[in-house]
Amino acid sequence: MTMAHIGGHGRTHLGEYAGDVWFGRLDARAKLVGIFVFVIVSAVLTDFGLVLVSLAVALTLVVASRLPIFHLARMYLTALPFILFASVSVFLFGGWERGIEMWARTSACVLPLLVLAAGTETFDLFAGLRRLHVPAVITTLLMLTQRYILLLSEELSRMSIARKARGFRGARNLLDRYGLKVLAFTAGMVLVRSFDRADDIYEGLKCKGFRQEMTPWRRSKVALKDILLASGLAAVAGVLLIVQLGVIA
Amino acid sequence: MHIPDGLMAPVVSLVGWIEFLVVFAAVLLLSGKRIKERSLPRVAILSAGIFVAQMLNFPIGGGTTGHLVGGALFAMISGPTIAVIGMTVVLLIQGLMFGDGGITALGLNAINMAVIAPLTGWGIYSLLNGLSARNGAPGNVVKGVVVGAAAWASVFVAAAACAGELAVSYAVSSGTYGIAATVAVPAMLGVHAIIGIGEAFITAGVMAYLWSVSPGSITSANLDRKTLPGLRGAISSDTARAAIAIIIVFALTLPLYFLYSSQGKDGLEKVMQNAGTAEGKPMISTPFGYGQDYFGALFAGTLGFLAVALVATAILKLVRMRTDRGTEP
């Protein structure tokens, strides 16, 4: 599943589309707050009509963000199996309306998160979390891990080419001992190489002034357009929630 | 197993978030000294290593593939507390960078894959490792079986927790959220019983590789004792470690039982109600009940677990004494 994510991007760096579109140039804090509020409210909607409205808002965000639709669709496909599993089972037990409601609600939650992920440069996203007072230990770990993932996935890619060059075509099934052994040793080799690199990387970080916390050097100001996006999404979420509570009452 | 937003009932997601925050705060407290400056890059690179290892797909038949979860592997390499932090980081990256797993569902995803999976793997690994080492150093095959069993169980128990959450969501929301237990439980357990086999083979292979190429990288045993200096003695035995893991997993899944049971009567109560009979006065009163609230049930369950463990240990000791006496020349 994860391979599909990385492969699905087609570019060397994640979030690289962020620089191409207006959505990517917005402040990460505004995007995080606006989208999180919208997703949390969308997740608690149970009225069929309101769920469809939230899906329409999510689709509008997808189109308005100007991010490549094909790219977002490929990301959506990775979440689809679980969504379909739930929707089809609800459809079988509770009828078509409930099945569609489940699909629409989960999709209305997933799509804005995909827009956030694809439309925000990764370090900006984590720096935004830090500026929103998420503990430094978590944001620093996120930034370091993201950096190392890029390094190690390149390593894995090189090993994959080397395996293919030696005639390895992947394990055939769970009884293919040789194939599974090769995959396991590849994973083990990635880990060993990562351990070897850990100290070198730490020394490198020290040279760059690392002291327990990754400090975002890039400055970012919340402008009017950022406030408009966050407050717009929050306002839509607020209206949906009020109507939902009215429906429940 | 990555649950998206909008699938689980809000109350179940809330329980997941509360549990996750409590566990994560406790883990940060326990490993606070280690998660300082020098260890941060190591935890990050291990998380990245597990993330990248998850990219290796293995076939599970019928043209479908599975991939490593890695919770048990992480715990075996670096100990349970670091594994919980590292797996949480992996899940956060998957959620924030790829939209894989939701925001409201992050608590439940973390409980399943970053807490239950590593703790189950670590607990079973500790228990079986202790048992296999009683008659001298175990051979490579035995070590592989121990690691494989722990890895398989970690995936299976995490999937069972996920299925339970889906079923409870369905029950508490009258079908608006979640998936009916009759679909969720067999589907999740069936698929993950098979994926678990791949997880077992790959984890055993990775550990075998690490033992032969880089044994110094497996730091779990030493580091854990450093994590809890005050409880060093208490957690030094493999059996005690397994017991701690089982009790924590029990404590985390217990709220699901309360949510589910709040929706109706259990099977026996339902039958009695249909038959028009009522429960009579008990012949013997015991000092402890099953508990009507969370902490009562947690206390009763822990007490029951320890009682069963002690009785089983006593029986095993007796059997061993008799066997030893019988083999004396």
- Global outline of chain B: globular
CATH topology of chain B: Arp2/3 complex 21 kDa subunit ARPC3
Q: Give the averaged pLDDT of chain B, no decimals.
A: 79
Q: Determine the strand fraction of chain A and express it as a percent band.
A: under 5%
- Quaternary structure state of the chains depicted: heterodimer
Largest sheet of chain B: 2 strands, antiparallel
Number of helices of chain B: 11
Give the SSE string of chain A: HHHHHHHHH
Residues in helices of chain A, as a percent range: over 70%
**E-strand count of chain A:** 0
Helix-and-strand structural type of chain A: mainly alpha
What order do the helices and strands of chain B follow? HHEEHHHHHHHHH
Care to count the β-strands of chain B?
Answer: 2
Work out the strand percent of chain B. Answer: under 5%
Topology:
The complex is a heterodimer of chains A (about 250) and B (about 325).
Chain A (H helix, E strand, L loop, with lengths): L1 H8 L18 H16 L4 H17 L4 H26 L1 H23 L3 H10 L4 H30 L11 H31 L16 H25 L1
Helix pairs in contact in A: 1-4, 2-5, 2-9, 3-5, 3-9, 4-5, 6-7, 7-8
Chain B lengths: L9 H21 L8 H15 L3 E5 L2 E4 L3 H8 L1 H19 L7 H27 L7 H33 L8 H33 L6 H8 L10 H24 L5 H9 L18 H34 L2
Antiparallel strand pairs in B: 1-2
Helix pairs in contact in B: 1-4, 1-5, 2-4, 3-4, 3-5, 3-8, 4-5, 5-6, 5-9, 6-7, 6-9, 9-11
Write a structural description.
The complex is a heterodimer of chains A (249) and B (329). Chain A has 249 residues and is mainly alpha-helical. Chain A has two domains: 2-130 and 221-248, no CATH class; 135-207, no CATH class. Chain A is 75% helix and 0% strand. Chain A is built from nine helices and no strands. Chain A has helices spanning 2-9, 28-43, 48-64, 69-94, 96-118, 122-131, 136-165, 177-207, 224-248. Chain A is flat, with a radius of gyration of 22 Å. Residues 1-13 of chain A have low confidence and may be disordered. Chain B is mostly helical. Chain B has a single domain (10-264), classed as Arp2/3 complex 21 kDa subunit ARPC3, CATH 1.10.1760. Chain B is built from eleven helices and two strands; from the N terminus they run ααββααααααααα. Chain B has helices at residues 10-30, 39-53, 71-78, 80-98, 106-132, 140-172, 181-213, 220-227, 238-261, 267-275, 294-327; strands at 57-61, 64-67. A two-stranded antiparallel sheet of chain B has the order 1-2. Chain B is globular and about 70 Å long. In chain B, 47% of the residues are buried. Mean pLDDT of chain B is 79; it is low at 221-231. Chains A and B meet through helix 1, helix 2, helix 4, helix 5 and helix 6 of A and helix 1, helix 2, strand 1, helix 4 and helix 7 of B.
